Each structure stands twice: as structure tokens, then as C-alpha cells.
Amino acid sequence: MLPKLNLIAAACENMGIGHNNNLPWRLKTEMDYFTRMTSKTKHQDKKNVVIMGRKTWDSIPKKFKPLNNRINFILSRSDLVLSEYKDVYSFKSLADAINKLNEHNFKNLYENIWVIGGSHIYDECMKSEYFYRLYLTRIHKAFECDTFFPALPEGLKEVSDEDVPKEVQNEKGIDFTYHVYENVNFKD
Ligand SMILES: NC(=O)c1ccc[n+]([C@@H]2O[C@H](COP(=O)([O-])OP(=O)(O)OC[C@H]3O[C@@H](n4cnc5c(N)ncnc54)[C@H](OP(=O)(O)O)[C@@H]3O)[C@@H](O)[C@H]2O)c1
């Protein structure tokens, strides 16, 4: 069976996702949703894998590193020093990360795979045969951004997920909505 990549991202009206290697907004409800979705497993003895680019890893405050209860995969073309962290792996390419996900022994350890950004990683994953779903939070406000979500590919259909609230969310006067898009070309 192919590894199934679930992408999760929050984008504002201009599809911006980041500014100065940080999030352009502070929305606790959205952050809690991200943590809940990427951490939740059916089996207590398994964790999910989160895949991120090196800049996204750098943007996580030290006290929150690695993202807890999840196996952290970091993509970088440099040699990262990560020995102080448990459950953290670095890979030089997405293909290397996929090879790890396909390893027989490693397969027993994880349940779901979440790709958590940034921009190029989302793009590469959406173009791959492993792209299954995009969980996109649309923030209905414009923010100044220097990093953007890539163009959405053809062949997405909006689906529902019982874990994803359907109603409009509001925090600090900002409306946002959760969306789930499935890649109709994904072959299980
Ligand atoms: N709103 C959201 O949902 C969301 C989610 C994630 C991130 N963000 C924001 O986005 C910004 C960071 O994203 P970003 O797009 O600038 O950077 P990024 O994707 O997190 O990291 C880019 C780095 O990842 C490595 N990389 C990328 N593709 C690779 C590949 N195929 N193989 C090996 N390594 C690869 C390279 O690291 P090296 O340079 O070390 O080689 C590259 O410089 C921040 O502002 C962050 O807050 C927002």
C-alpha cells in the first residue's frame, strides 16, 4: 500500500502562510485543531508522522520541539544536528523520507502521515503519487505574508471528515473555516 500523505495548512485570503519565518496570525483555536488532527490515532501504541521543511522546524519555539506525541521528519539538504531530540529524523529528499515510511519495521510504529509545510514541501507532495488529502484552513482576512501556499492542483474534491468542524470559526474577530480536499487521482 502506498504511503498516504495528508497535508495540513492554514492560509489567509491571499493564500499567504508565513511571514518572517513565523505564522502571520495567532489563532489558538486553529493551533489546537492542528495539534489535535496531527496527533490523533486510533491505536494508542502508534504515533503519527509529521513531515516538515527545515525552516518550518526552525520556526517552532525550542520548548515545543520536537512536536510532541508525533514522529518528526525534517527535510533538509544540509546535515542537521538533531541528536538531542527523540523521535526526530532528517532526510535529504522526500524520496528518502518515503523510503523510511515504507520500511517494514518502521511501518508498525506510525498510523497517519501529516505534511505540515512549508511552501515547497506542500508543492512537491501535492505533485507526488502519495498525495491523498489537503486539510486547509481558510482564514477570511488578509495578512502581510512572504510565504504562500502553492497553486492547488487539478482533481481535488471537497469531502467531509467527522473530526473537522463544519461551522465558521471565529477568534479575535477573525473568521476562518476548515476544508478537506481529496485527490481524486490517488490510487490506494
Ligand atoms: N500557515 C501554515 O499552515 C504554515 C505551515 C508551515 C509553515 N508555515 C510558515 O512557512 C514559513 C516556512 O516555510 P518555507 O516554505 O519558507 O520553508 P520550509 O518548506 O519549511 O523549509 C524550506 C527548507 O526545507 C528544505 N527542503 C525543502 N524541500 C526539500 C527537499 N525536497 N529535500 C530536502 N530538503 C528540502 C530546505 O532546507 P535546507 O535549506 O536546510 O537545505 C529548504 O531550505 C514560515 O513562515 C512558517 O511559519 C506556515
UniProtKB/TrEMBL annotation:
CDD domains hit by this protein: DHFR
Domain DHFR, by residue range, is 4-183
Annotated signal sequence is none
Q: What cellular component terms from Gene Ontology apply here?
A: mitochondrion
Pfam families reported in the protein's UniProt record: DHFR_1
InterPro entries tied to this protein: DHFR, DHFR-like_dom_sf, DHFR_CS, DHFR_dom
At the top level, the lineage of the source is Eukaryota
Molecular function terms from GO = dihydrofolate reductase activity; NADP binding
What are the EC numbers?
1.5.1.3
Uppermost EC category: oxidoreductase
Q: Which residues form a coiled coil?
A: none
Q: What's any GO biological process attached to this entry?
A: tetrahydrofolate biosynthetic process
| PROSITE patterns according to UniProt | DHFR_1, DHFR_2
Q: Which UniProt keywords apply?
A: NADP, One-carbon metabolism, Oxidoreductase
- Give me the reactions it catalyses: (6S)-5,6,7,8-tetrahydrofolate + NADP(+) = 7,8-dihydrofolate + NADPH + H(+)
Write out the pathway annotation from the protein's UniProt entry. Cofactor biosynthesis; tetrahydrofolate biosynthesis; 5,6,7,8-tetrahydrofolate from 7,8-dihydrofolate: step 1/1
Q: What does this protein do?
A: Key enzyme in folate metabolism. Catalyzes an essential reaction for de novo glycine and purine synthesis, and for DNA precursor synthesis.
Q: Which family does the record assign? A: Belongs to the dihydrofolate reductase family.
Concerning PANTHER family, the annotation shows:
DIHYDROFOLATE REDUCTASE (PTHR48069)
Tell me the protein's name: dihydrofolate reductase
Organism of provenance: Callosobruchus maculatus (Southern cowpea weevil)
